[in-house]
């Protein structure tokens, strides 16, 4: 049976990327050695690293006054790396769900945290808007896309203070004006690579704003100055990330990827809104392109286990909603083909017909 992968992460990757990675595990770049057992100091891997950075810069249109580096530790490590480096007195955070709450907890170890806006009053089903950004803070922190609740910022904020964003789950899914951000970071396991590597895009002036003496591995300058290789980097995920960026470029770049993502999301949201058995869970204007969340309509909640079993029988994988919100979630990351979304829509339509 054909499988349709909607896992929230680690997520689907393009077939051509998987094939390249599989070959490299056996023989990396004609070296006769496995990618898993080469030295990261070889010219061949240094070329991979350079390619990854250059492609990242090209696809996202990253200005010259920004540095890119790759580290381990996942996005969760950045929750404390960021305040350790940049929180001297006070920072502003916008609370839009689990991941910002975790970041806020870590930041409080280093200074004062002002939560200047939150959507917790409605269980994080919208993105706060119209809030004032104080000018006496060291930085403003947001999470651009919320995988659990299915909300996403649709515009880049104008901030009078350095703007820092966690873009783990929507990086390179849509255009972003990088120049509006002081730092963008994210785990790669949604749109770029398998788990194990985190990307950081940092504006040059931030490298001079480290506010305290830190252990070497925690200082952002360590990773910029040593070209992501102060210690052994996550070689395999970086290679896969490079291959994914190559795939994106070959497919038409970010503009084409964004067009496809909008098309997929519009198709599935239209069915959610049409189908008498399902409803969306967040404000329509804040609906995520990446993580599409929905539940049964009122009075049909008891059908949820039956639909889950039916969807599984049709090859749907990973559509169970997060335990905090329940329901269903289809994660339609860049490599998720339109065919998968069409199959899920057909499944929902068939299920509705069964219950008329």
Mean of all residue-level pLDDT scores: 97
Count of beta strands: 14
Strand content: 15-25%
Distance between the termini: 27 Å
Task: Summarize the structure in words.
The protein has helices at residues 15-26, 43-60, 74-86, 98-107, 220-225, 235-251, 253-274, 304-313, 338-354, and strands spanning 4-5, 66-71, 90-95, 112-118, 140-143, 145-146, 151-152, 163-166, 183-187, 198-203, 278-280, 291-296, 316-317, 328-331. The protein is an alpha/beta fold and 356 residues long. The chain has two domains: 15-251, Aspartate Aminotransferase, domain 2, CATH 3.40.640.10; 253-354, Alpha-Beta Complex (Aspartate Aminotransferase, domain 1). Strands 2-10-9-8-5-3-4 form a seven-stranded mixed sheet, with helices on both faces. A three-stranded antiparallel sheet has the order 11-12-14, covered by helices on one side. A two-stranded parallel ribbon has the order 1-13. Helix 4 links the parallel strand 3 and strand 4. The chain is globular and about 65 Å long. The model has no long low-confidence stretch (mean pLDDT 97).
Please outline the helices and strands:
Layout: E1 4-5, H1 15-26, H2 43-60, E2 66-71, H3 74-86, E3 90-95, H4 98-107, E4 112-118, E5 140-143, E6 145-146, E7 151-152, E8 163-166, E9 183-187, E10 198-203, H5 220-225, H6 235-251, H7 253-274, E11 278-280, E12 291-296, H8 304-313, E13 316-317, E14 328-331, H9 338-354
Parallel strand pairs: 1-13, 3-4, 3-5, 5-8, 8-9
Antiparallel strand pairs: 2-10, 6-7, 9-10, 11-12, 12-14
Helix pairs in contact: 1-6, 2-6, 3-4, 6-7, 7-9
């Amino acid at each position: 049976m054909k499988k349709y992968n909607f896992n929230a992460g680690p997520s689907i990757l393009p077939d051509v990327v998987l094939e390249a990675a599989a070959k490299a595990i056996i023989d990396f770049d004609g070296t006769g050695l496995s990618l898993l057992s080469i030295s990261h100091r070889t010219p061949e891997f240094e070329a991979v690293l350079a390619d990854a950075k250059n492609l990242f810069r090209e696809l996202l249109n990253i200005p010259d006054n920004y540095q890119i580096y790759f580290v381990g530790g996942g996005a969760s490590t950045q929750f404390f790396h960021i305040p350790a480096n940049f929180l001297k007195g006070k920072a502003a955070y916008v609370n839009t769900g689990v991941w910002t709450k975790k970041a806020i907890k870590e930041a409080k170890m280093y200074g004062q945290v002002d939560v200047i806006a939150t959507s917790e009053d409605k269980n994080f089903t919208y993105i706060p808007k119209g809030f004032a950004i104080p000018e006496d803070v060291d930085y403003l922190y947001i999470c651009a896309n919320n995988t659990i609740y299915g909300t996403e910022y649709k515009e880049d904020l104008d901030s009078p203070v350095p703007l820092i964003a966690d873009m783990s789950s929507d990086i390179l899914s849509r255009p972003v004006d990088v120049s509006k951000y002081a730092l963008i970071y994210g785990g790669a396991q949604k749109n770029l690579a398998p788990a194990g590597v985190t990307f950081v895009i940092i504006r040059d002036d931030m490298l001079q704003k480290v506010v305290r003496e830190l252990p070497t591995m925690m200082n952002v300058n360590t990773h910029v100055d040593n070209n992501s290789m102060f210690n052994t980097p996550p070689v395999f995920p970086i290679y896969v990330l490079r291959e994914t960026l190559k795939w994106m470029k070959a497919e038409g770049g970010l503009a084409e990827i964004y067009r496809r993502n909008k098309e997929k999301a519009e198709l599935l949201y239209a069915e959610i809104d049409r189908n008498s058995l399902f409803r969306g869970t967040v404000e329509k204007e804040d609906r995520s392109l990446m993580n599409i969340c929905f539940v049964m309509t009122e009075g049909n909640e008891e059908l949820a286990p039956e639909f889950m079993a039916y969807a599984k029988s049709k090859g749907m994988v990973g559509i169970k909603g997060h335990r905090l919100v329940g329901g269903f979630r289809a994660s339609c990351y860049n490599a998720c083909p339109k065919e998968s979304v069409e199959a899920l829509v057909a499944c929902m339509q068939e299920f509705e017909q069964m219950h008329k």
